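User: Okay, second chain of the day. Same drill as before: sequence in, structure tokens out.
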Amino acid sequence: QVQLAETGGGLVQTGASLTLTCAASGRSFFETATGWFRLQPGKNREFVAAIKWKDGTTYYSNGVKGRFTVSRDNAKNSMYLRMNNLKTSDTAVYYCAGSNIDCLGTGCYEEVHEFDYWGQGTQVTVST
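Assistant: Same drill. Structure tokens below.
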């Protein structure tokens, strides 16, 4: 059984940093990818970032590019999201997701349907 567990959420002030961790169990994503999505009240689940585990190729939404960094540790079967210079607009529930797809080219892993496994989410709240 594949399980993804997010940790690291919390309440921070604007400009602060936070690191989320996604621990995977039940399978390796070495041949595919994992990603981060977020859900804000009244909105659809939104792509944040993704990483291909074999070569470390990363993908980011325009809204977080330059502020967020996604990484993975193959030995620990874990993925991370380092979030710097947080804004109130980053407030959301952040979800870890695992894909069975080995996407080639650009624009990969930006859609919910590209992922087959989901964690329960972790709340990130950024206050002024």
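The two ends are 41 Å apart (CA to CA).

User: Thanks, on to the next one.
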